[in-house]
Amino acid sequence: AQSVAQPEDQVNVAEGNPLTVKCTYSVSGNPYLFWYVQYPNRGLQFLLKYITGDNLVKGSYGFEAEFNKSQTSFHLKKPSALVSDSALYFCAVRDMYNAGNMLTFGGGTRLMVKP
Amino acid sequence: NAGVTQTPKFQVLKTGQSMTLQCAQDMNHNSMYWYRQDPGMGLRLIYYSASEGTTDKGEVPNGYNVSRLNKREFSLRLESAAPSQTSVYFCASSEYAGQTYEQYFGPGTRLTVT
Fold first, then answer.
1. A90 touches chain B (CB under 8 A)
2. Which of A18, A19, B3, B87 has its CA 20 to 30 A from that of B61?
3. Is the pLDDT at B35 greater than 80, yes or no?
4. Residue B99: predicted pLDDT
5. CA gap A99, B3 in Å, rounded
6. Among B41, B45, B101, whose Cβ lies nearest the Cβ of A102?
7. How many CA atoms lie within 13 A of A3 on its CB side?
8. pLDDT in tens, B44-63
9. Sign of the CA dihedral B10, B75, B91, B59?
C-alpha cells in the first residue's frame, strides 16, 4: 500500500522569504515522488520528481525538493517566495512495485505568499 | 499541441441522470487516468487505462464506467448520478504505465449533482 500526508492545510509566507511545504510518505518498496501545483480553476501542473540518485531535486519555477529516506519525507522548498507562487500544492507517491503508475496524492497544501 | 482536453467544463445534473465526460490527449501517450478532486482529500483515482484496450479500477470506481475508445480518448460515464458524485473531475495521461513518467492533467470538469 502507498500513502502520502501533507500535514499543513495552509502555509503563509512573506514574499522574498524561503518557503517549505511538507510531505511525508509510506510505501512498501522504494518510492517515486512527485510535486504538482494547481492554480485556480486549472488542472495540475508537474513541478518535479524524485526517482533515484541525488536527494536534492530541482524543478520548475525555482522549486526544489529534498528526499529524506530515514524520515520518509519529500519537502518542497524555494529560497525566495513570489506572490505568483500562491497556489495549491500536491505531493504524490508511487510505489516501485505499482505496475500501473498509479499515483496516490496528498490532500494538498495551500500556499499563500503575501507582498 | 493542446495536451489533455476535457469536455464539458461545467455540468449540472439531477439525481438519476446520466452523462459522459470526454477526455482526449494529443501527446501519443499510452496511459490515461480519471481522478476526482474533493476538498481536503486531494485527488483520488477512479479508473485508469494502462494502454489502449485495457482498463482497471482505481481507488473509487463505484458508480462510474469508462471506455478507452482509442489511444487518444478515454471517457468516463456516470450511469445514474448521485449528489455524492458532485466533484471536479480530472483526466490525465502519461507515456507508459510501468515507468515513472509524470502525468499530464486536463483542465477539469466541474460537476454538480442536485
1. yes
2. B3
3. yes
4. 57
5. 24
6. B45
7. 5
8. 999 999 889 899 999 899 99
9. positive
